[in-house]
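The records we work with from here on pair a chain with its fold. A complete example follows; check for yourself that the lines match position by position.
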Amino acid sequence: MDLSALPQIRHAQGDNFFLLSGPCAIEGEEMALRIAESIVEVTDRLKIPYVFKGSFKKANRSRVDSFTGIGDEKALKILRKVSETFEVPTVTDIHENSDATMAAEYVDVLQIPAFLVRQTDLVVAAAETGKCVNLKKGQFMSPESMKHAVNKVTETGNEQVIITDRGTMFGYQDLIVDFRGVPVMRQYAPVVLDVTHSLQQPNQSSGVTGGRPELIGTMARAGIAAGVDGLFIETHFDPANAKSDGANMLPLEQLPKLLERLTAIREVITAL
């Protein structure tokens, strides 16, 4: 994976970690632009390579009445507007083979959800678009098994692939990040730690996923210390009223201070 190959990526030649960040789902144009503007300001100041994240639709929901999106094309056009307005690359997740070609017209990175990373046809469809592919490690998969998912991408001739770890299921309602997997997976591709999703508490009796957002800083610091290449952090200016995954998102106003601390840790780790 050559980070500098991503369209409009900035600060890719430095030693800092890169960041995939934004809301869980695209709820509208104003909210997406507001979040992107705030993150672009701090990542430019700290020289963090940045990719705006937003799901154009949410297919993996516990309840049938959960928010799934504002409309595929409408959300994808908003992602394009974010990219054009702030000159940053964008990433969104896909769930069906047909999503790959459609989303590739609007975004720079196609993300394969953790539940779907063993779906060969979906992974290959994403790879064949020529876009960078972000493979979320399945909650049920070992770090070693991600080699095969990466191979599904590279065997199409596409070398632009990232692995994102979002924890491993521990019982029914918890996820655990095993940092021993970081050096294992870095043999196959750059590794990103999904800080916010690894703090989810799924399978609640209410059908609404819970979370431990108070541990976001702890988890992010541990990831940088363990040597991850990038971080994935979902954020929102009003998590309590976000339409998806609000229980484990970082309040947007807390992101600058966290990134400042993480950049300082990264400088120490790089100097060792």
